[in-house]
Specification:
Elements: E1 19-20, E2 24-28, E3 34-41, E4 47-50, H1 59-73, E5 80-83, H2 87-98, E6 105-106, E7 120-123, E8 133-136, H3 142-145, E9 150-153, E10 156-157, H4 161-172, E11 179-186, H5 190-193, H6 196-199, E12 202-208, E13 211-213, E14 219-221, E15 253-258, E16 268-272, E17 275-282, E18 285-290, E19 304-306, E20 309-311, E21 318-320, E22 337-338, E23 340-343, E24 346-350, H7 351-356
Parallel strand pairs: 5-6, 5-9, 9-11, 10-11, 11-12
Antiparallel strand pairs: 1-2, 2-3, 3-4, 4-13, 7-8, 13-14, 15-24, 16-17, 17-18, 18-22, 19-20, 20-21, 23-24
Helix pairs in contact: 1-2
């Protein structure tokens, strides 16, 4: 691929081998499709990273990535999007539009004469490590943010320095973002530099490892002896990841909704990797299930919970929330259930389990011939 062709198109799902190529890294996107990223050598001449320069991407690629990220952020109900400079501004604007917002709040590094020093924070970037900058918030924007649910957006999270600066600036005006969004979580260096409360709010579309050059000139994930493996903490090459560390090799716990939003007896809808799910609460126990009824795709978030059963609003078909089994007399597949848990003030769902057994919501086609059904 020629250098100027990167980030210009979304390839069909399965068209390319996920993970490392000779000088590129292929990631799988939510809902199908693949994006090819170039690998850039770092200043030490030994290590490299998959690169995304979003303001050089085609408009179609930008819109797709922004739309996917907006769907990831929807369960957090952000009211205002704040963008980090420089490349995060391109993404934040597009994400705000995808969320249906009328505007977004851009942070900047150019000090206007009316800016105030108390609304600033020191800033550095992995792409410009030798340039020390200052992050500013226009004082006129404080009223837009006060008392609102804020999403802080950057294109890539790498060292964590930009996110730390953005969070420091938000803290100075008494704002605590409900979620931090990025397209790519680049290596795992940011995990060591950010506060645990910040890390658990991070949502990314995909994760890529730190790379190192082998003697034969090929790239491999740093610390692995196998070019086909991934670095520790990023176990699934090309799959969407979140900031919270996996509890096991087959888990990918993802925050999807504030616990306070899930009311007992009422299914709560969330979207995870393009799939509609419902969360059901019983005391402090939470369960997740596919959001479309396997009978005729009724929206289960509009149903109700009665005595441990989830009732579909269309035909009053019920499903056992312990096993997923349908009520007697219905020849339909069982409801698919997924691991869920409360972590702090958030509800998390194991996205890895979702990928292994996606909620297809198979539709039953009725046969109205005499004697049928």
């Amino acid at each position: 691929m020629r250098p100027h062709d990167y980030w210009q198109r979304i390839d069909p799902a399965g068209a390319l081998s996920s993970g490392l190529g000779e000088d590129s890294y292929v990631v799988d996107l939510d809902g199908g499709g693949q994006l090819v990223l170039p690998v850039r050598m770092l200043a030490d001449g030994k290590r490299g990273l998959a690169s995304l320069i979003i303001n050089q991407a085609s408009f179609a690629a930008q819109d797709r990535l922004a739309g996917d990220l907006a769907r990831r952020l929807e369960p957090f109900r952000p009211e205002v999007v704040v963008g980090l400079p420089t490349l995060g501004l391109t993404l934040a604007s597009a994400v705000a539009r995808a969320l249906g917002h009328e505007r977004y709040v851009p942070l900047g590094t150019s000090r206007k004469f009316w800016y105030r020093e108390e609304l600033s924070a020191p800033l550095s970037s992995v792409t410009t490590p030798d340039q020390k900058k200052t992050l500013y918030l226009d004082p006129r924007m404080t009223r837009v943010l006060e008392g609102r649910r804020v999403a802080l957006i950057d294109d890539v999270i790498s060292s964590g320095a930009s996110i730390a600066a953005g969070m420091a600036l938000m803290t100075r005006i008494g704002v605590e973002p409900v979620v931090i969004g990025a397209v790519m979580l680049q290596s795992s260096r940011w995990r060591a530099s950010l506060d645990p409360k910040v890390k658990e709010r991070i949502v990314g579309l995909f994760s890529t490892p730190m790379l190192e050059k082998e003697l034969d000139g090929r790239w491999r994930p740093e610390g692995s002896g196998d070019a086909g493996s991934t670095e520790s903490g990023t176990r699934r090459t090309g799959l969407s990841m979140t900031a919270r560390e996996d509890d096991g090799a087959s888990s990918d716990w993802r925050p999807v909704a504030p616990a306070a939003d899930v009311v007992e007896g009422r299914p709560h809808a969330v979207v995870v990797e393009g799939n509609l799910l419902v969360i059901v609460r019983t005391g402090e126990t939470f369960r997740a299930a596919q959001g479309l009824c396997p009978h005729e795709r009724g929206d289960l978030s509009s149903g109700r919970v009665e005595g441990g059963w989830l009732v579909c609003p269309r035909h009053l078909l019920s499903f056992d929330l312990g096993s997923g089994a349908p009520s007697k007399g219905w020849g339909v597949p069982a409801l698919k259930l997924y691991p869920a848990r409360k972590a702090g003030e958030q509800i998390e769902i194991d996205a890895a389990a979702l990928r292994r057994d996606p909620p297809l919501g198979a539709r039953t086609v009725w046969n109205l011939a005499p004697g049928a059904n």
